[in-house]
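== Fold encoding ==
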Amino acid sequence: MIASKTSQLDDNQRIVITGVGLTAPNGDDLAQFRSGLLAGKSGVVPYEIRYFGKTIAGVCNYDALRYQKRKELRRGTRAGSIGIYAASEAVKDSGLDLANFDRSTIGVYIGVTEHGNVETESEIYLISGYNYDTSVWSHHHNPRTVANNPAGEIALTLEITGPHYTLGAACAAGNVGLIQAAQMLRLGECDLALAGGVSESIHTFGIFAGFASQGALATHEDPTKASRPFDLNRTGIVVAEGGCIYTVERLADAKARGAKIYGELVGYAINTDATDFVLPNPERQAQCVQKALARAGLNPEDIDIVSTHATGTSNGDTLECEALRNVFRQSDRTYFNNTKSYIGHCMGAAGALELAGNLPSFRDGVVHPSINVDDLDPTCELPNLGLGTPREIGKVRRILNNSFGMLGINSVVIIEDVGAQGH
């Protein structure tokens, strides 16, 4: 078996995931989320939002008061609340005791697609009832809408005094948060990172209206079947909220405290299409995947599962599949799946959530399928594309996670089972 390049690195340069915290439309922790994926459980429901009206969305149902008081929820944002919940759950899952940890050495790196639209729309709606008198504008508006908000709310609540920032990377942001964490750990800028992505997108009518004007908003008489990447009759994106944050550490530190390890980040890449505002470029996507493989020192056939980005748009799914066929055409042992078919598109959280849903494959050897594919679009055919039912494939060593976004940003991460290298 080929070894990834990171196996040759010092343990202080090897980066591992030791905790997972999440909320998704079909689960509020990893076990529940994974169970939903294996059972084909959708989290898409009927939804209604001001001005836009009735639609569908992926809605989270986590306990927002588990880590915050009502006053704090009123002061903060939905994205911040999701981030606080996911980060707190990740720390709990990791077994770390922050009371005995130097919090000035913790970094918070959170990816988002957008932030501030919810608060701005709500405040404008509020003052419209007062003849647009700005004296009733909330004094919380500025801290709610500053670009660093979700990461800042997490740092404030968890009393973290190390670096924090929010990374705007469109729908590639979940992967980007994880990549940033790895880079900062390797540079010695932090000793522990909380990293991933969050999304509050369903609370802004502008996103629904924007996708509708593009002809890219999914519709279906059965909400649970509306998100259908790869299906010939797919109609577009199902907007969803959610969040997934990881505790990320150096392998040496994780070993020293006897931490459980979900996987090691052995490869990653970020690049840009530079060709269109929204239409993907399959050549650049393929190059991003190839760059991540090269960084890891791996070949396509060394990847067991590819988690696709596919959103359910006609061009987006087809072009990604074209890119993947070009990279994996010689591999007959790589399996492909999709998670948006269950929960919709969680925007900035999508990449982090979709990776999390696949991590248990290292332990159970099962690939969760894509659902809602009743009639596979021939342009989306991939070898070993999992459809409908889970597939037992035996030992899973590596997962490659695609996550792409508007304005042509592409991100890819490769996670390896540390046990695959005998550790």
